[in-house]
Amino acid sequence: MCPLPGFFTVEGGATVRAWRPFLATMLLVLFVTSCSFSGSDTEATPTVDQGNGSLRIFVAGESRTIKPFHQFTEATGIKIEAQFAPQQEWVERLQANREKPGADLFWSDNAIDLAILSNLGLFEPYDSPLANALPDYGRDHDGRWYGLTERRLALVYSPSTLSTVEMPTTIEEFIHTPWQHTVAVPPATSRLWTRFLTEVVAFEGEMALLQLLESLNQLTFDLSEESMSDVQHVANGDVAALLTTSDIGMRWMTDNEQATNEVHMQPLASQYAEHVGIVTGVAILRGTEQRQAAEALVDFLLEPDRRRSLAEQDSHEQLLTEQTDEQQLPRLHPDEMAALVPLVEHYWQIVLDSEVRANTND
User: Which of 131, 184, 243, 277 is 20 to 30 A from 159 (CA-CA)?
Assistant: First the structure.
């Protein structure tokens, strides 16, 4: 088992969140990329049952009912076996088991990882007839993955601790707010950070990125798990605000209707757009022996009514070919974001090295 910097482990391998400056979460980027799965650290990869016509799909996120899966089975007779796990677990597993991933499709909670895995040759290209119904940033140009919905960046906060007028409305304001209360954010490896930071370096340059990371380094945050349990911490008063996506907040509110007054939500914009969106998507895994059935499922999910239903079910936004808001600058394609990830990590390393040198001199 690979322990995570910024966390500590207890007996049985459970990981417990610890309080650390944001700089500590930067270590995760370097650590995760250097800590690979070995045969002794992973369970045997299950094989896909090729005899019963079923499809196995890895789904990022918390376990939930996905209605289109049942609808697809009713329409085609093809059973779908869905397995749920955190995004990072699936990404690492797919990288470690490229020749035999153990599933037919991967449903990702962000398209940046889809672009990265696509460049590693993990997906089968498929030219879907429904591709043109998606915006340019919502699909791979070679048909290796397709977007389904969009999650949006938001702040979930406790109205008993923070007032609406105190809440920032942009990610830049959030970073530069002198927080007097406990605030939780995703670790540095989260694609929520990647989504925003790649735009900073693309539109403003490397110096602007470095200055922003240095500002982040001055702050102390609690680390979130990117799940509904984080929202519960806000409702309990453990943290005053949580940087997350609106779907996580909305799902918690749906499950806790009697406690909706305990948390409020503020959508976050950026200086580049009226919202910060993270595309979700699906890809066919290379090596599947259920290619025809996998393609049929992709087309089924891409039908406009189906994508609309998915967005409503998961409290996401629809992917529309025409922008409904005015973007100040062109939106980066996930391929462009993926290409900028090494540069962002490089500057994280610069900030980390600078902090280490400063501590050594002290």
Answer: 277
Q: What are the φ/ψ torsions at residue 188 (nearest 5 degrees)? A: -60, -20
State how far the Cα of 70 lies from the Cα of 325, in Å rounded to an integer. 34
Q: What is the arithmetic mean of pLDDT over 15-25?
A: 43
Cα–Cα distances (Å) from 63 to 31, 66, 82, 314, 340, in that order, read 27, 9, 9, 12, 31
How far is 171 from 175, CA to CA, in rounded Å? 6
Q: Cβ distance 298 to 288 under 8 Å?
A: no
Contact between 345 and 353 under an 8 Å Cβ cutoff? The reply is: no
- Residue-wise DSSP of 283-308: EEETT-S-HHHHHHHHHHHHSHHHHH
- Going by C-alpha positions, the residue among 97, 327, 337 that lies closest to residue 197 is 337
Alpha carbon distance 75, 21 (integer Å)? 51
How far is the C-alpha of 355 from the C-alpha of 228, rounded, in Å?
33
**In the structure, how many helices (H) and strands (E) does the chain have?**
12, 14
Beta partners for residue 334, in sequence order: none
The predicted-structure confidence for 316-344, as pLDDT tens digits, reads as follows 999 987 655 555 568 899 999 999 999 99
SS3 at position 168 = coil
pLDDT digits (tens, 9 = 90+) for 275-298: 999 999 999 999 999 999 999 999
Q: What does the pLDDT look like over 209-260, one tens digit per residue?
A: 999 998 888 888 898 988 899 999 999 999 999 999 999 999 999 989 877 7
CB count within 10 Å of CB 356 equals 11
